[in-house]
Each structure stands twice: as structure tokens, then as C-alpha cells.
Amino acid sequence: MEQRISLITLGVDDLARSREFFEAGLGWTPAQAPEGVVFYQLPGIALALFGRDDLADDAGQVVDGRFSGISIAINERTDADVDATMARVQAAGATIVKPAHKTHWGGYSGYFADLDGHVWEVAHNPFWTINDDGSVTI
């Protein structure tokens, strides 16, 4: 079996509001947006926004509001790119959870929570390569 993730789906409280955040804050463009869901094509993977209650129903789970222990990372090419992304998402309504800073592992990283509380890391890892298509090589 191949090692891969094809899709990450985020449950959101207000699909229209979250879509606006992803487009204004991250500068992303939807690949598809059928009623009730928005898909973003990323290098080698897709991200979907789906109503939180609809996702919970689909997965047979209860929304309990606890941090799930999962974060999503966006790797940038430079420290300055990290700072620019953090500023842009904050201006679009994100909460900065941990400001960008030099890390103990030799990189530069910060965390934000999107409008629905999903935690994202924005990092520059000088030991990884970001390819021309945006994919990461470890």
C-alpha cells in the first residue's frame, strides 16, 4: 500500500465565512464548490471545508469542542514568507496561537487557529525542499 493522504476535511461552523477566510487569508482558490462543501487542490492532496455538524453526522461522531491533537502545516520557503502568511491570516480573522519564532530544531515557525479553531503551523524548515509545484521533499 502506498503512503499517502488524499484529502483532509475540516468541519466548519459557517461554510461561507470559512471559504472567505481561506480565500482572503491564505489566498487559495477553490477547485470545486458543490453545494455544502468547498474543495481546494493542493500539491498532491486536497483540502475540503464541510459543515461541522454535517461532518460529525457523516463520521458518526459528536462535536465536543476539544483540541484533537492535530495540526495542519504550511511550509514556506523563507522566514519572511512565514511572517507574511501569519500577518495575512491574522488580518483575515485568525487567532495567533504562537507567534512565529526561531525554533530549537533550526527552523522558524508559528501557529494560528482558523475561524473554526483548527490549529495550523506555518513554518520554514531549512532542511526540507519545497519543490516548484509546492510539494515538500523531506
TrEMBL record:
Domain of life here?
Answer: Bacteria
Q: Which InterPro entries match?
A: Glyas_Bleomycin-R_OHBP_Dase, Glyas_Fos-R_dOase_dom, VOC_core
PROSITE patterns reported in the protein's UniProt record: VOC
| Gene3D superfamilies on file | 2,3-Dihydroxybiphenyl 1,2-Dioxygenase, domain 1
Please give one Gene Ontology molecular function term for this protein. Answer: dioxygenase activity
Q: Which residues form the VOC domain?
A: 4-125
Q: Which organism is it from?
A: Mycolicibacterium chitae (Mycobacterium chitae)
The answer, when asked if DNA-binding is one of the entry's keywords, is no
Q: Which CDD domains match?
A: VOC_like
Keywords per UniProt: Dioxygenase, Oxidoreductase
Q: What is this protein called?
A: Glyoxalase/bleomycin resistance protein/dioxygenase
